[in-house]
Design brief:
By secondary structure, this protein is α+β, with helices and mostly antiparallel strands. It is built from one helix and six strands.
Length: 79
């Protein structure tokens, strides 16, 4: 299976394996040693050479898009 260069971190298991999803929805396990720097759920990883690293700009853009989608989904009672 050919791995895509951009992955979304779904979850981190046992601090060794990072479970990611590619843009086509495929689940890919990435060894933590293949990732440079700190990583958290929701981060977008890009492959640079032999290692993945967090794409800060893409991660922030995705977060803003998700926030915009969920804004207004729940109506808060006024007190």
């Amino acid at each position: 299976m050919e791995y895509k260069k951009e992955l979304i971190v779904d979850r981190i298991e046992e601090e060794l394996i990072v479970v990611c999803e590619d843009l086509q929805g495929n689940i890919i396990n990435v060894d933590r040693m293949q990732i440079e720097g700190q990583v958290k759920e929701g981060d977008i990883l890009i492959l640079k050479g032999e290692k993945y690293r967090v794409d800060e700009a893409s991660t922030e853009k995705r977060k803003r898009e998700i926030d915009a989608l969920v804004k207004g989904m729940w109506v808060e009672d006024e007190i």
